[in-house]
## 1
Amino acid sequence: GAGVSQSPSNKVTEKGKDVELRCDPISGHTALYWYRQSLGQGLEFLIYFQGNSAPDKSGLPSDRFSAERTGGSVSTLTIQRTQQEDSAVYLCASSLWGSYNEQFFGPGTRLTVL
Amino acid sequence: AQTVTQSQPEMSVQEAETVTLSCTYDTSESDYYLFWYKQPPSRQMILVIRQEAYKQQNATENRFSVNFQKAAKSFSLKISDSQLGDAAMYFCAGEYIFGTGTRLKVLA
């Protein structure tokens, strides 16, 4: 079956513009996670969804970041008024619900803010 | 896990040798799972191995095994008979909290 997909694969934007990043999880996966990975760094947790609700959004770095999930499937991460420090790879992962389940990762969206 | 710490930014191992990657964690949960993920260069993150805290026996997956020391909150990954394809970033994780990673180089 299809894995986790993310679009776009690359996004270059100008400082101050808004961007939307999309994640299509594996069908049937109720949990969905967003992470940020700066060059050569670890994964910074941003938010996770169980179905359409977000029990933990504590990792969102500022109110410029928001995310939603509709129909228990597709999720969109929106960054408003982008800054240069937002440049990173944004990874999405999905899993069956339960802390014991492995996460399946997408290829990521590389965001560059000029 | 609420915190996950990997103190080795980079490790090197000769092909066919054994290497151990270290990880410590902290959690207030009584039952939890810990994971090691692998991120090859320019490729997607994949699960290497997982361990349930309640299980006494250390998890093993072929050449990969863990040394889980619950009291010490330590969760190290041992890779035996290292292969060139093992070269990657390795991340220790507790649910959705990840360490900073260890870059493993495999020398031919």
## 2
Amino acid sequence: QQQVKQSPQSLIVQKGGISIINCAYENTAFDYFPWYQQFPGKGPALLIAIRPDVSEKKEGRFTISFNKSAKQFSLHIMDSQPGDSATYFCAASMGFGGSQGNLIFGKGTKLSVKP
Amino acid sequence: GAGVSQSPSNKVTEKGKDVELRCDPISGHTALYWYRQSLGQGLEFLIYFQGNSAPDKSGLPSDRFSAERTGGSVSTLTIQRTQQEDSAVYLCASSFDPPGQGSEQYFGPGTRLTVT
């Protein structure tokens, strides 16, 4: 059973456009939702994260939108740049409310931003 | 400051051999995680160490996998009698977890294991 479902699997966006990646989760006990960015040959790097007590969090060009009732959250990348081309993973954990801090990841979205 | 480091960066081994993978977490981080990243399965949790507590081994795929963390710092993941399906990138992450709550996890560059 896949606890975190991520879509799309791949995404092509023109430079300057908006990239949107969606995730849905099953376990209502999750209380921490990070997004990671991974370049080839590198480990995942934390991009932005949200807790369920807020519906949106923005950091620079990156925004997380969170819908607790729908059990969905999404990453929006505004003014997408070729340097944003990477694989993006959403994740969830119960780490902030308990001892089960391990992350459960979505399958990843490969983003390509065309110049 | 220094991030999470892992060694070796690449490891090629023959089926049936044992391998040891090393992780040096960020100084001061109390929690340490091992994950496995493979093409078919994505990123999977393996094991979690928090301070002096017993590790959470719930993600280990078989009893051929084990890990230890010495002195609350460096960790070693051992895979015995390696199989071809063990081929993957093994990632280590660490975080500073105050008691009763978690915090952001920072990943190392990974060790790419190839079993021939």
